[in-house]
Amino acid sequence: KELIAWSEDNNRTPGIMPIVEDIKNSGSYMIFHSITKYHGGKGSVASRLGWKLDKRVSRGFWSKEENIIEALSPYLDCEGSGKEGEEEECTIPTKSSLIERGRQDLVGAIDRVGGFKAVAQHLNLKIRHPGRKPRYPELKDWEIYKQKLELWVKRQEGEDFDNRMPKMREMMSN
After folding, report:
1. CA distance 171 to 161
2. How many Cβ atoms sit within 10 Å of the Cβ of residue 1?
3. Beta 77-79 vs 89-92: how paired, if at all?
4. I need a labelling partner for 94 at 20 to 30 A (CA). Which of 52, 69, 75, 119 fits?
């Protein structure tokens, strides 16, 4: 109801789904959030209303890396060093920032090819929020992990430890 009224008030073509960013920029945040957070995005809403999307991409469009790169490039946050011949360092946008800009299609494409972290690594981009740091980074090395595990098992001799794996803090305590 509200979306139909918004379309009429903003002189939009009847039966064509407006761009979600336009809805947000007009100040209609409730409609914007309803579409993006609660009703599955613009494609889902357009389908329910029997509307067409203004720009529909062909099947397989997002499986091509160059299409993802092209769609992603306006949203990259890049800083140049200012020196000639040096490359810019760019940061991949966050999922939430793309959703806020109405680009759920791009978010879906990135998720299907391995996620934001994988795409950032593949395109040599920095990540704004790389996630939490591993608590025990040294345990990534198999030999160190094996050593700590064997030491823990040795310390358990004579005790009944129910043939269970140790908790990380147990294994790391000396």
Report:
1. 13
2. 5
3. antiparallel
4. 52
